[in-house]
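Subject: Sanity check before I submit

Could someone independently write out the structure tokens for this chain? I want to compare against mine line by line before I put it in a report. The sequence has 209 residues.
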Amino acid sequence: LVKAPIILVGPILWAGLWRRGRATASEGVLLAVALAAAVYKPFWEGLDTLTALRRTELFTASLGSVLRLALAPEVGLSTATAVARWTSLGAFVSVALISIYLAGRARTASDALRPACFMLRRGLLLASTWFQAWYVVWPLGFGAALAEPRRHLEAALLGLGGLLQYFVFIYLWVMGYFPATENLAVQCAAYLCVVGPLLLGVAALRSST
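---
Independent answer below. Compare away.
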């Protein structure tokens, strides 16, 4: 079953195709909608089928989870949750608009795939308030399709970060290095584990060029 969040790359791929052929772009949209309908039809039970819509109140190992717990003592948990959710979403929308613009200027397939990979990666790190390690398979697929060693390295580092968060939750938290209840320190540590390898890798690449 295709996960609904992957639909985020639809506008980017459409924009990339539109410049090279409007008929092809339109056909692609129609085929994608038909395929999605065929895949979801046996399982469809209304909007409840889209489980991502029921997880908007969940926060873990994300920018939103850190911001939420940082603000909660000052403004209350309910307001902090709303601020964290909309801040994460707003940051992602900004990235998405830039990615769609770049895709619209694409002249090759790689030029269109690159913004899609970029947007999915930023979507995981910004818009996803409930991060799970297996989410990295989405940008990993697009990164692998690009014949660019740098993108492959970035995808691998993001995958490493996704696994490192388990070190925080399964080992350090359980072993008592953090308070047993939900707390800012453990969420900060988990999010740093997710983004740390990628940020260090990008910084190392830039310093070497």
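---
OP: Matches mine. For the report I'm noting this point. The two ends are 42 Å apart (CA to CA).
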